[in-house]
Amino acid sequence: MSTLKVFSGRASANLTKQICEYLGSPPGLITIGTFPDGEIRCKIEQDVRGQDVFIVQSTCPPVNENIMELLILIESFKRASAERITAVIPYFGYARQDRKDEGRVPITAKLVANLLTHAGANRILAMDLHAAQIQGFFDIPVDHLTAAPVLEHYIRSLSIPPEQLIVVSPDVGSIKRAASHAESLGGRLAYIDKRRSGNRVEQVKLIADGPMEGKVAVLLDDMISTGVSICGAAHLVQKHGAEKIYVGATHGVLCGNAVEHLKTAPVERIILTDTIPLQDELLPNLKVLSVASMFGEAIRRIHCHESVSRLFSDSMQLWTRGS
To answer: Which residues are catalytically annotated?
Structure first.
């Protein structure tokens, strides 16, 4: 492990600190700043020649600035003769621009993948990409983690009887994810028929294999961005008689009026992870779970040439520690 070095971009300093605590080694020494004209500057403050370097940086808002910073960090370590550079991207920005859904639009997720590769990254470690096919946009290895075990561990701690639990997919596109959660947690599955017209989103109807009255609904998605969809889903589930409603996601982007939407939603608890820096105080009913142990174990396994996929079949203590 002496050749393993973990460094942080400015977007993921706290998460990196927790990852390094799991690994039992201090974060790498690096200075990152901004010139008066807005250009990003950095200097690696220790020798990394021949080292196995992991750079932790979420490309969350401000997205463009954080992506550019990550590219500069990768290039810096490449020029400093690091043996291998792994970009650890807890939240991958531009992931929703993964296809041409109309004419004359870019596939920006592919562009970002190309930029990371050309900057010098040898490997990518990410969590809950918005679209799994983004892994195929890279010509280098990609390890794709999921926060599902962390979220499910917390939901189990709520001691909801399986016969009372209904896992609700907020839209058709998330049914597969919701079905996996329902199977793991032992609850029933429901989904919401959502229609989008321009910037307007409407939850048309709830489709379930049984009544919602008196049940506990858990709405799970990969991210909460503006909060319009998930909050609209919560209101619809309440309308159908749910006794309690929990909302959960891996990535708390929380842009625009998301906080205001969530404050007025009929939700018992909002469950997010720390892939994007958040404070519990942001919302009175917010619970932030840590994915640091999962990232730490994945980094250890990559460094030691062990299986990352087996991480999900090993002891739950590896990724639920401290959550």
So the answer is: 194
